[in-house]
Amino acid sequence: MTDYRTLSGQTLAYYGDAVYEVRIRKHLIDQGIVKPQVLQRIATHYVSAKAQAELIELMLDQTMLSEEEVLIYKRGRNAKTYTKAKNTNIKTYQKSTGFEALLGFLSLKGESDRVTELIDWCIAYVDKERAEKNGK
């Protein structure tokens, strides 16, 4: 069995990106959003580097993460990147990589309840922000 604590931040982020993306896509479809172009546009409120960086900053500010989770986030954030940040600055990209690494680590470790808890919190936060922005 693999000790997931030894995986690179980039590897954890690679997996965490998929975990988070699938959950967001299901959430949007469950809301009745079914047109691909609309799904893609709305999904960016949840899965863009900017959105993920904001979410992880809020989690840290609210001390929602355990000591180990903060360390995993920092490993992902500080990982050497081999790709260029798209539509964002490098700091935002690094924070979003840390966010994805955290979700990847927890998921690989089998902590599905914790992954669900964190993603549910993210969804609730983004949904609330979107509703307030749209005057609902």
Total of DSSP H or I helical runs spanning 4+ residues: 6
What is the CA-atom radius of gyration, in angstroms? 15 Å
Model regions low in confidence, pLDDT < 50 over at least 5 residues: none
Q: Count of DSSP E strands?
A: 0
Helix content: over 70%
**Average of the residue pLDDT scores:** 93
Characterize the structure shown.
The protein has 6 helices and no strands. With 136 residues, the chain is mostly helical.
List the helices and strands and how they pair.
Layout: H1 9-30, H2 36-47, H3 49-61, H4 67-77, H5 90-108, H6 112-133
Helix pairs in contact: 1-2, 1-4, 1-5, 2-3, 3-5, 4-5
Task: From the structure above, extract its key features.
single chain, 136 residues, mainly alpha, 6 helices, 73% helix
Write a short abstract of this structure.
The protein is 73% helix and 0% strand. It has 136 residues and is an all-alpha fold.
